[in-house]
Amino acid sequence: MARKAKTNGDGDAIRDVLVVGGGPAGSTAALAFARQGRTVTLLAAERPKADGRTVALMRPALNFLDDLGAWGALDERSAPLERLVIIDDTGSLFRPPPTTFTAREIQLDQFGKNIEASVLAEGLAAAAASEPGVRMITGRAVSASDEGSFARVETEDGTVIRARLLVAADGRRSLLREAAGIDVREWTYPQAAVTAIFAHDRPHDETSTEFHTRTGPFTLVPLPGRRSSLVWLTEPRHAERLLAESDADFARTVERQAHSMLGAMRLDGPRGSVPMGGIAVTPFGRNRTAVIGEAAHVFPPIGAQGLNLGLSDVRALVAAAERFDDPGCDDALSAYDADRRKEVTARTTFVDVLNRSLLTALLPVDLARGFGLLALGSVGALRRMAMKRGLGAGAYGNRS
Question: Pairing relation of β-strands 265-267 and 183-200?
Fold first, then answer.
């Protein structure tokens, strides 16, 4: 006998927006659309456990979350990022001196803040849940379809939700993206990202340090106190060996790789590993569905682009929808696609080229990368332009 579908608790009412996915991008989208006056449902599965990952949120993302009233309670659990140092540790014949980027040089007190990913996810989910315009449903979508004037989603327990706009925040294997017929291009890298959190003897001085190695960047990012998060892009087999080491041996390995710049290191949280790959989509919206976050773009964690780009997706989608009574109409989705295509393509290409340049020992590639870093370190105007472009729109204003 066929299972009888359950309604969403609103009878035959059609919601303005259904967000599928309860990560930071999804929770923020639900909150932002509710603040726009839309009726919103957020369908989210239980969030995964902490795995040592953190998120470096740049100023535009922080300003956006602050405008939504979602950042204040999280601020004390984050650490400011005032400087970024890039060190060539590839062993190349041409190794430029370290390149330092300082927020003060572009009249900012900080580039942004770093926070544990699980803490951010919980905080933004709580902000969305407390918003009167957001209805929370726990579960997973199993089907989605465009019904003309609205979209229909059914969950694993048979609940049916109808909405004018579906926001696919359901990750790189997005069901909603596939159901909407949005094309996706995927690729892989011979790398895995090892993540962990460490305590250390020396202060980090609010400085994020990125060592460029032959397997990818090895990055230490400040956390509150004498603690830092690690993102180490390395060969998959090496990542497996690192995860198999004892806590003490793993800490010593990381300390050596960091040239003891932070003194003795001790594991201070969980560790994990994520295989590296990328995705790109065309278009960003179709058939009453808009993709955001990792449903729209995935690339290696270089330059703190991932979630910052995802929150830019949310800003752009909300702004595009604001012009129309029907937030999922073709014109709204076309405006969203036009807004995101250029920025996402540019940043995806930049990260891809930089990452691949580290994986080759070809002298011309090494020279090009080395001279690029040397120019950034030596030419103030070029360095300041790079910092401003890296932060993007929304980085400035009367913010602390």
Answer: antiparallel
CB atoms within 10 A of CB 398: 4
Lowest-pLDDT choice from 1-10, 51-60, 205-214, 263-272: 1-10
Answer for the pair 162, 14: CB distance below 8 angstroms, yes or no: yes
Query: Mapping DSSP to helix (H, G, I), strand (E, B) and coil, where does residue 205 land?
Result: coil
**Residue with tokens 């470096």, as numbered in its chain:** 56
CA dihedral 299, 303, 307, 312 (to 10 degrees): -100
pTM of the model: 0.89
**Proportion of the chain above pLDDT 70, given as a percent:** 86
Alpha helices in the chain (DSSP H): 24-35, 59-67, 117-129, 175-179, 236-244, 247-257, 306-321, 330-358, 363-378, 380-391
φ and ψ at 209, to 5 degrees?
A: -115, 125
* Cα torsion angle, 71, 61, 202, 268, sign: positive
36, 85, 232 from 264: Cα distances, Å: 49, 20, 18
Instruction: Count CA atoms closer than 13 A to 276's CA, side-chain side.
Output: 27
Q: Which of 5-9, 31-35, 216-220 has the lowest mean pLDDT?
A: 5-9
**Residue 290 in tokens:** 């808009």
Angle between helices 330-358 and 363-378 (to 10 degrees): 110
State both tokens at 372: 């690029």
| 15-51+117-186+276-360, CATH topology level | FAD/NAD(P)-binding domain (3.50.50)
List the chain domain ranges: 15-51+117-186+276-360
Q: What's the residue count for the chain?
A: 400
State the DSSP code for 105: G
List CB contacts of 372: < 8 A, sequence separation 6 or more: none
Backbone angles phi, psi at 24, to 5 degrees: -55, -40
Summarised one tens digit per residue, pLDDT across range 181-229 is: 999 999 999 999 999 999 999 999 999 999 998 888 999 999 999 999 9
CA distances from 316 to 174, 309, 327, 349 (A): 20, 10, 12, 20
Place of tokens 């041996």: 249
